[in-house]
Fold this sequence. Notes:
Blueprint: E1 2-6, E2 9-17, E3 23-30, H1 33-49, H2 61-70, H3 77-95, H4 105-117, H5 122-141, H6 149-152, H7 184-193, H8 198-209, H9 213-217, E4 224-225, E5 230-233, E6 236-238, E7 252-254, E8 263-266, H10 269-281, H11 301-316, H12 323-336, H13 341-348, H14 353-359, H15 361-366, H16 371-380, H17 387-397, E9 400-404, E10 410-414, E11 425-426
Antiparallel strand pairs: 1-2, 2-3, 4-5, 5-8, 6-7, 9-10, 10-11
Helix pairs in contact: 2-3, 2-5, 3-5, 4-5, 7-8, 7-11, 8-10, 8-12, 12-13, 13-14
Amino acid sequence: MKICRRRNRWVLDFYRTDAEGHRHRERRTFARRDEAEHAAGKIRGTLSRGTYVAPTSLPTFAQLAADWLRSKQHHRPASQAQWHQHVTAHLTPALGHLRLDHLDVERIERLRDALVTDGLAPQTVNKILTTAAAVLKLGARRGLLERNVAQLAERLRIGAGELDEDDRSGARDGRVRPEDVPTTDEVRRVLAAAGAGHDRTLLLMAALTGIRSGELFGLRWADVDWPAEKLAVRRSVSWARVAGDASPVRFRFFAPKTTAGVRTLPLPPELVAPLKVWKLACPPSPHDLVFPSETGAPLHRSTVLRTVLYPACRRAGVRPFNLKALRHFFASSLIMRGDKITRVAELMGHSSPLVTLKVYSHWLRDSESSGVAELARALCGNDAPDDGATHAAAGDGIDKLSRRSASGHKVVTKWSENSPTRGGKAS
Length: 427
């Protein structure tokens, strides 16, 4: 490997051996000597590790992205559709013509900034960068690149953008706003206005379990444990179709997205009773569905909104809301009633309680707790009904505090009202 100057350019000249043992001569030209020396150092490292790839044999980003999309054909149609949209609408137009060795962090971050300028939300931009990083990860596994520049690119801060005066969304960071969740009175009125049987039982199931719509429409009667009054969530139905798929729209059953999605939910008596009545009237379904359509197939979310929920909202005289709002109603109601956040996360099928904490932070901030007062009463013995008993309890409650002296001996101190100091006397 040597570096020499030719016609005001610096030329790096070296030989490489391919997988079949054949030697090939390669040349690279640079404007400055330090650039040539830097490239020579990198090439020496890749040659010694056996990971060198000739630039002319590297694919473009568009070619690698097409391979990556083909490798995802067994994933959920909804996920495939989102990835396909990221690649075809945003990544390929900006990066598709570039060879992998021409990609760098600066170029990826320029694309990020351009997407923000085009009006995309920070969360959407970050998801597009994540898709780009997944594409380049395939290239890294194939030994086509040494570092994933899309993974290194800085992500946007969620919720840091300036809000317009007319922007009332306020939920850019994934948090649910209280004004977007129906009240208990509104849900009660909608249930009363819903049609008896199928409609009311379906909405009651959504409100009292917090189940996702896809999980709700995929429920089987075999998932209901009548003696234990439990409901097993084991699958979800999807009607999504990958972009460009010309085949007829059809439903597919999938396992929940995460292991936390596979869960068992309690069925309160107020839900068990109407569910038993509905079972007697439920039309047969080849899929054993709890809420089948007239043909026995799973319901579609848009159909339920159009024929069940929105009409019930109109009859009840309340603002319209969707099925996901009932899921938020369930979770926020449990939080306001003092349920532990870990239990709420478990019932919701969240992958982590951190998700629950983030999404429902408004209710956690607004919920009042008597924990401090209860701690003070337990510590100072203020549970007694009168002052005399209170003082006696205080003496007994913090009666003996064990500690160790410098010599290692156990010392028991007694704190009483008459002690000259808080430490009291050692006894």
